[in-house]
Design goal:
The complex is a heterodimer of chains A (about 280) and B (about 240). Chain A is globular and about 50 Å long. The longest helix of chain A has 27 residues, at about 5-30. In chain A, the strands form two sheets. Chain A has a six-stranded mixed β-sheet with strand order 6-7-8-3-9-10, sandwiched between helices. Chain A has a four-stranded antiparallel β-sheet with strand order 2-1-4-5, covered by helices on one side. Chain A has helices at about 5-30, 75-80, 100-110, 125-135, 140-150, 170-180, 200-210, 225-230, 250-255, 260-270, and strands at about 35-45, 45-60, 60-65, 90-95, 95, 110, 185-190, 215-220, 235-240, 240-245. Chain A contains ten helices and ten strands. Chain A has about 280 residues and is of the alpha/beta class. The relative contact order of chain B is 0.15. By secondary structure, chain B is mainly alpha-helical. The chains are: A alpha/beta (about 280), B mainly alpha (about 240). Chains A and B meet through α3, β6 and α4 of A and α1 and α4 of B.
């Protein structure tokens, strides 16, 4: 049984926690940064996947990570979304430390992985309800949120079809809708248009642009025209390091290139990327 | 709550695979029917009781569970091959929810399969005028419960370790071993010798015996085997969960 002193101590502690949470929420709301990364690293035995990178991302912007295969883009996203633990450095996601406040971070972010990430034998609607349920929505809320996403992504015609019969473009749309249904403040899109035809890709760009009105987006892509069309800020990664960062115009200016692809090639080659 | 949401998804995914019905229900029912016909055709003087309905029914139910193992292995190996695991890992789901999400549906499916197969056996008993005793059926069903855990855990173990192509092959080997060395389709007790020795080294022999008779030793061994399999499956699933990203 707790003594009076213990009860008082608990109440004081709760008040301090409540105060610090309120302060934290205020701090988060007032900070213009969605992500702040300092010296973040990830080492595997015999390989450094990400080598002491630092950057910050403004709220409500699209930040693109560019790089050749194995540059460390996906590992960076995985660290920031809590999928893998960094081996060094610091990172704050909406002012939450990714080491000590991972549960909070997971509630605020979501990821759309690069490969098929849908339950293939569930319908579009069931996939959406399933993810909403995983994030704690009750049955009624699951239905409402799924309907909202179906409208937002124009999935009405596909709503009751099983995911496995959808085309690549529709599956990718569903995958992004499954990430957005959890109402994240930050979304990580890992090569969202990989393997899609031009029309499907353009359609998805529109979806991403609309999402930017609501959330911050971190994008990895191999398509330079995609990064050029969508990004507010771009970082070029080579062998786990960020070799250049800025707006598309700034990168073109820095390298004297006429377009982002040329700028990327120059930065990557100077950085030692293999051709 | 999250585990149950995941379990609901797993059960839908398994039930929407048409092969689940063919193998988990169709095949055991077909075996029940075929072996009953075979038993009817055997001359009485042969004295073969292996396919008499009171032995055949629990044996077939036990054999049916091996298909639950195949489907659990296919399901988890398939899930591991997609990025759905990455999505789940990025969510507030924890390892315990993940484990619940696989084990609960498989246990429910195992019970359903057992009930349907036994229901068919009871009907067959009336048709063949060799009715099964209700108490014997109820007792057998209770004694089969640990084996449902054993096979669903074995499926999860195999599907967690091997890929989509290797897992079903390995499970098929276990299906054959269970059918033959478990004493379902082969009279291992009568054969004796090395075959019986090998049979007795495997948990399936005891599981089948526990399903057919009230042999306490067999029941205890099948419970221990089930618990060990569950323990191993939980350990491996935790590892899969951690490695899935």
């Amino acid at each position: 049984m707790k003594t009076n002193n213990q009860n008082k101590a608990t109440t004081d502690k709760e008040q301090v926690n409540s105060r610090s949470k309120t302060e934290h929420d205020k701090e988060q709301a007032s900070s213009p940064k969605a992500i702040v990364v300092t010296g973040l690293s990830k080492q595997y035995p015999g390989k450094t996947a990400v080598d002491s990178i630092s950057f910050s991302v403004d709220k409500g912007s699209i930040f693109s990570l560019l790089g050749v295969n194995g540059a460390g883009k996906t590992t960076t996203i995985k660290m920031l979304s809590g999928l893998t633990r960094p081996t060094g450095g610091e990172a704050y996601v909406l002012s939450h430390d990714i080491y000590t406040e991972l549960d909070e971070v997971k509630k605020l972010v979501n990821i759309s992985p690069q490969d098929t990430s849908v339950a293939s034998r569930l319908t579009v609607r069931e996939n959406l309800e399933f993810i909403a349920g995983i994030y704690g929505a009750d049955r009624k809320k699951q239905r409402e949120k799924a309907e909202e996403m179906i409208q937002y992504f124009h999935l009405q015609e596909m709503a009751d079809r099983r995911a496995k019969v959808l085309s690549g473009g529709w599956q990718r749309k569903l995958s992004i809708a499954m990430a957005l249904i959890t109402e994240p403040q930050i979304m990580f899109l890992d090569e969202p248009t990989l393997g899609l035809d031009v029309l499907a890709r353009r359609e998805l760009w529109e979806v991403i642009r609309r999402m930017k009105e609501k959330i911050t987006i971190i994008l990895t892509t191999h398509y330079m025209e995609e990064a050029e069309s969508l990004s507010d800020q771009v970082a070029v990664m080579v062998d786990g390091q960020i070799k250049a960062m800025g707006s598309v115009e700034e990168l073109k200016e820095q390298t004297g290139a006429g377009n982002l692809e040329e700028a990327f090639v120059r930065i990557a080659q100077e950085g030692g990327a293999r051709s | 709550m999250k585990g149950l949401v995941f379990a609901k998804r797993t059960i839908k995914e398994i039930l929407r695979e048409p092969l689940s019905y063919i193998f988990c229900l169709g095949f055991p029912l077909l075996m029940l029917l075929l072996m009953s016909v075979l038993n009817e055709s055997l001359p009485k003087e042969v004295g073969m009781s292996l396919f008499a309905l009171e032995n055949l029914a629990p044996g077939t139910v036990y054999f049916g569970l091996t298909f639950i193992m195949i489907f659990s292995a296919i399901q988890i190996a398939g899930d591991r091959a997609t990025s759905l695991m990455v999505r789940l890992h990025a969510s507030p789901m924890r390892a315990v929810d993940f484990i619940e999400g696989y084990t609960i549906p498989l246990f429910i499916l195992g019970i359903l399969q057992m009930c349907i197969t036994y229901a068919a056996a009871v009907i067959l008993g009336f048709i063949l005028k060799t009715p099964l005793k209700p108490l014997a059926v109820a007792g057998s069903m209770l004694r089969i419960l640990p084996s449902i855990l054993l096979f669903s855990s074995l499926g999860l173990l195999i599907g967690s370790i091997f890929n989509e192509k290797a897992a079903p092959g390995l499970c098929s080997v276990l299906v054959t071993v269970t059918g033959m060395l478990g004493g379902i389709w082969m009279p291992v007790d009568t054969l004796g010798g090395k075959i019986l020795a090998v049979s007795k080294a495997l948990p399936f022999y005891y599981g089948v015996k526990a399903a057919r008779t009230m042999d306490a030793k067999s029941l205890i061994i099948s419970i221990i085997a089930a618990l060990l399999a569950v323990f191993a499956a939980v350990l491996v699933l935790r590892k899969v969960w951690k490695k899935s990203c």
